[in-house]
Specification:
The complex is a heterodimer.
Chain A lengths: L1 H21 L9 E7 L3 H15 L9 H9 L21 H12 L17 H11 L6 H15 L10 E7 L2 H9 L6 E5 H10 L7 H7 L11 H4 E2 L2 E2 L2 E7 L1 E5 H6 L11 H12 L10 E4 L3 H11 L17 H15 L7 H7 L9 H6 L3 E6 L3 H5 L3 H4 L2 E5 L12 E8 L6 H11 L2 H10 L24 H11 L13 H16 L5 H22 L1 H11 L12
Parallel strand pairs in A: 1-2, 1-3, 8-9
Antiparallel strand pairs in A: 3-11, 4-5, 6-11, 7-9, 7-10
Helix pairs in contact in A: 2-6, 2-20, 5-6, 13-14, 14-23, 22-23, 23-24
Chain B lengths: L8 H28 L20 H6 L16 H31 L6 H10 L5 H15 L6 H4 L6 H12 L3 H9 L4 H12 L1 H17 L2 H6 L8 H4 L4 E2 L2 E2 L1 H33 L4
Antiparallel strand pairs in B: 1-2
Classes of the chains: A alpha/beta, B mainly alpha.
């Protein structure tokens, strides 16, 4: 028995040794590593690489002595000889941007200093580590290549080029539970993804986020640097807490092949809710000419659909002071009735039982996106971020078109807009560098990645002025992208109340919709019960929390008492 | 002579068929998982279980041996590393937990000291506290020890277990005390009694605990998720999240990864299954 345990412990020790020995560790080389809690998908690598590369690019302010730089390029030392192609601009420092651009293009070349004797240069520690890895035939990333070349340039011209501070961003899971545990213990990632206004308000009330207001104006990431419609989703009580990573407003994406198959006319801008229902009913009426049956709408988020219906009707969640729910008003009731009828009267969205019978998948947005992508459904109400997902379905991409949400009850089309935004952890030890990252989100380099990936709209509206700006390899037709640009103008973020946790409301709304879907409650009764529940919770919160009582006094201008609802 | 009750042939057939149906129902998710791992992406949503055209390349795509055919890009997962991490962490936790639990169980079952049973009850009471309640204090301790984002931060907190101690104590109580008394008469110390008398006799219990611990540690998700932020240290369960993101869920690849993931669990279970049943039965005889 002792031998067995000795062997087992030895095996464990050997595995431990092997694990530690073969573990790639980022070298302790003075590089600042920002941690970004987000959805860790492959696109994040591209987004963070560009940020890293921007930090090592030569900027105007990095050149300490332009004349010395001109002289050095005119009489190149061994290391600088590789800049020979800059001959045209060498010595000419009048067109500084052109010279910097040319040098930066060189910094991106992996072979820039191949074969050059660098032994007499006083290279920094991180440059030596990168060089060793390069000599060991390891593949360096684009950022590492640029960083190495920049370090060599700094060493070759020590009094001419300022040393760049290297910042790398590492991506990790932004799972809510992880974030809560980490923030509750005073650590956590530097940058935190914040999905939607409700989550932002929860994080703000928990004291997790840094107030960005003092930095936003001077660093260029205030609300005025993104879509005006989104301002209410970034700001609470006049303070800004996040900046968008991408911005969404839902449209109807439809599959032209399925519409043709059922002889249904394509939706046109300005279409109405009745047109939407009529198109859906014709699609579900029977098989198309091909003999295939199709779903009318791939319905992946009941809450989003309800919120778009409510907003389309001009409805709101709360009264302006946030002290009562307005869901039991006529718009809230009507929105729930429309939702109910879509499912149970017109049958253009599948019931939960039908959905469960059709889907073999779980996970993000259940199987509805996969139904639409595999050409089983004619329409889906979704943001432009759907393009990230349809990359995997090249055949479907050819048939896609989009149109704004239908106008309801004679109103113009409008829906909800919101963003996946980034905020900074109040306990981040790298606040200044994290702010640089937020600044990067507002810039063109990052925005262009979002355009190319199809991950909704870029935060910088100058990159999304019209459909042509948004053309990418996934869907090259500008007409596809135009409705998303048009949709964000009249859209607005959902309103929220400081007296109740928005994420709690999201859960209750989902539960209410599920009751309606499963016919446990009629639409009107369900909305009234929901509004009553919200009002009850607001009263309870006010009774229990002094900070909310103060807020109450601010909002109403009168002293709080437990019977505040009684008419005076 | 006791008369054997007469068994009806038809009754046996009905029971057999019913058990077959139940067995099939239980195994459908497993069959679906294996079948989906051989489907091309276009077929994953199909209701039919068997793929029209088996697509075994899902496995090599997950292992980064070839690019994803639709995007033309390698997934760049660290699947092999995550696989190794999962096995290594589970082996470490299992060995340490079985050893520490056996020592504690010996102290609680064979040694006599004042307040022993009260301490045991207090120790046992920790099992009543839900894991979520102790999550943040445990995490704070890990921060203080500098164990965040390390292997030992995953292994050491799981190296001690009230359940393991309880299971082995019950098992050791079923071993006749006369055996260690005889050893003591022959001059054996506690240490010698523990290693030479009790541990060999407790083997089924040790193996049962080992299996439970290995299965639990191998499937562990939440603690590694919050402890680690470097993907090089991830176990498979956390690393596989990369296949389900807002940029697309690749069900066929998730299933291929899952099939590879559960191989060690199946091996452990198949090899040690007989000890598992025996260990639990013997441990439950005496309390």
């Amino acid at each position: 028995m002792r031998k067995f345990f000795a062997c087992a412990l030895l095996l464990f020790a050997l595995m431990y040794g092997a694990a530690e020995l073969t573990l790639e560790r980022p070298p302790a080389d003075g590089v600042v590593r920002l941690r970004w809690a987000t959805d860790p998908n492959p696109a994040r690598n591209v987004q963070t690489e560009i940020f890293g590369k921007l930090q090592v690019r030569l900027k105007d302010s990095d050149v300490l002595d332009w004349d010395a730089l001109a002289r050095a390029l005119a009489k190149p030392q061994a290391a600088l000889a590789r800049f020979a192609p800059l001959a045209a601009s060498r010595g000419n420092t009048t067109d500084r941007p052109a010279l910097l651009r040319a040098i930066n293009e060189h910094l991106d070349r992996p072979d820039l200093f191949d074969g050059v004797d660098l032994s007499d240069l006083d290279l920094s520690h991180d440059a030596r580590l990168l060089l060793k890895r390069k000599d060991d035939d390891e593949d360096l990333t684009n950022v590492e290549v640029a960083a190495l070349n920049r370090r060599i340039l700094e060493a070759a011209l020590p009094r001419v080029i300022r040393k760049a501070r290297r910042i790398e961003v590492t991506v990790e899971s932004g799972a809510r539970e992880k974030l809560l545990v980490q923030c509750a213990t005073g650590i956590g990632p530097d940058i935190i993804d914040v999905y939607g206004k409700n989550q932002m308000m929860t994080y703000v009330s928990a004291g997790i986020l840094v107030d960005l207001t003092p930095f936003a104006a001077k660093m260029g990431f205030g609300p005025e640097h993104t879509y005006p419609a989104l301002t209410g989703g970034l700001v609470v009580d006049g303070r800004q807490w996040r900046f968008p990573c991408n911005v969404w407003a839902n449209c109807v994406i439809y599959n032209r092949r399925i519409f043709d198959d059922h002889d249904v006319a394509y939706p046109k801008p300005g279409w109405t809710f009745d047109d939407f229902v009529a198109a859906g009913k014709r699609i579900v009426a029977g098989p198309g000419r091909s003999g295939e049956k199709h779903l009318a709408v791939a319905h992946f988020s009941p809450v989003w659909m309800y919120n778009d219906l409510l907003t389309g009707l001009g409805g709101r969640y709360f009264t302006p002071d946030g002290l009562a729910s307005r869901l039991d008003g006529k718009e809230g009731l009507r929105a729930m009735k429309l939702y109910h009828d879509l499912m149970h009267v017109h049958k253009v969205i599948p019931t939960p039982a039908e959905a469960a019978a059709m889907s073999s998948q779980g996970g993000w947005a259940t199987g509805a996106i996969a139904w639409f992508s595999s050409q089983r459904a004619a329409m889906i109400l979704i943001g432009r971020w759907y393009l990230c997902q349809v990359v995997q379905y090249p055949e479907t991409r050819k048939h896609l078109a989009a149109v704004q949400l239908p106008g309801i009850d004679g109103r113009a089309s409008s829906g909800v807009t919101d963003a996946r935004g980034a905020g900074i952890n109040v306990n981040s030890p790298h606040r200044d560098d994290a702010l640089k990252f937020i600044q990067y989100l507002a810039g063109r380099d990052y925005g262009q990645v979002i355009v190319n990936d199809g991950d909704s709209l870029p935060p910088n509206p100058n990159l999304a002025r019209n459909g042509r700006d948004l053309v990418n390899d996934i869907v090259p037709d500008p007409n596809f992208h135009q409705p998303f640009v048009d949709a964000v103008g009249p859209a607005r973020p959902l309103d929220a109340s400081p007296f109740i946790d928005g994420e709690q409301i999201d859960r209750w709304v989902l539960e209410t919709l599920q009751k309606v879907e499963n016919r446990l409650l009629g639409p009107e009764d369900a909305v009234r019960a929901l509004a009553a529940e919200i009002n009850r919770r607001i009263r309870t919160n006010l009774r229990r929390r002094i900070d909310l009582q103060r807020k109450f006094e601010q909002v109403t201008g009168r002293k709080y008492s437990d019977d505040w609802q009684r008419p005076r | 002579m006791i008369a054997q009750p007469k068994r009806s042939h038809a009754g046996s057939i009905v029971r057999f068929v019913a058990l077959c149906v139940v067995g099939f129902v239980i195994s459908v998710p497993f069959i679906w998982m294996v079948a989906a791992s051989f489907k091309p992406r276009a077929e994953v949503e199909d209701v039919q279980i068997v793929p029209n055209k088996p697509f075994p390349r899902n496995y090599s795509i997950v292992l980064d041996m070839e690019p994803d055919p639709t995007t033309g890009r390698f997934l760049e997962l660290r699947f092999k590393r995550w696989y190794f991490n999962s096995i290594f962490i589970a082996v470490g936790i299992t060995v340490l937990q079985v050893l520490t639990s056996a020592m504690a169980a010996y102290a609680f079952s064979r040694m006599h000291w004042r307040g022993r049973d009260k301490v045991f009850l207090a120790y046992l009471a920790t099992m009543m506290v839900p894991g979520m309640v102790t999550m943040i204090p445990n995490y704070q301790i890990m921060i203080s020890l500098g164990f965040l984002n390390t292997y030992h931060g995953l292994v050491l907190p799981a190296a001690f277990s009230a359940f393991g101690t309880f299971l082995l104590r019950q098992f050791m109580l079923s071993i006749p005390p006369s055996l260690d008394e005889a050893a003591k008469i022959d001059g054996a110390s506690h240490w010698q009694v523990f290693w030479h008398v009790i541990m060999p006799l407790a083997r089924p219990g040790l193996i049962a605990l080992g299996i439970f611990t290995f299965l639990g540690a191998y499937r562990s998700f939440f603690w590694p998720l919050i402890m680690l932020h470097s993907d090089r240290l991830y176990p498979l369960q956390v690393g596989m999240l990369a296949l389900d993101t807002t940029y697309g869920r690749q069900t066929e690849l998730i299933m291929a990864a899952t099939v590879m993931n559960i191989v060690p669990l199946i091996l452990v279970f198949v090899v040690f299954q007989r000890f598992l049943v025996k260990g639990i039965q013997l441990g439950s005889v005496k309390g």
